[in-house]
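Data card: per-record layout.
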Amino acid sequence: MPVWGRRCWFPWGGPEQLVASGLGWGAFHRGRALSLACTYFLGSRYEDVTALATPRQPPPVLALACVTALCEDIAARGRTPSWTCSRDNRPSRLLA
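The structure for this 96-residue chain is written out next.
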């Protein structure tokens, strides 16, 4: 798992626990993660989403696909997806 992905799996204790939770989506190429989206905070009504993309991969492409699939899963679980970011974080706001 690349260093940039640590923020994504941190709440779950590690990448293996995130995978086991079933609360994440990823885009991979030749065994390398290019983009990840997962539930960062899990509540009874809401799931806060986080997403990451490799610096060389244009975020709107794969990250949007991962976020969309995750949000569909969250809705299917009867919860509402939420997104928290700094208003100065334009890439995150655009993705949200």
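Known properties of this structure: The mean pLDDT is 82. Strands lie at 24-29, 32-42, 46-53, 80-83.

See the next section for split statistics.
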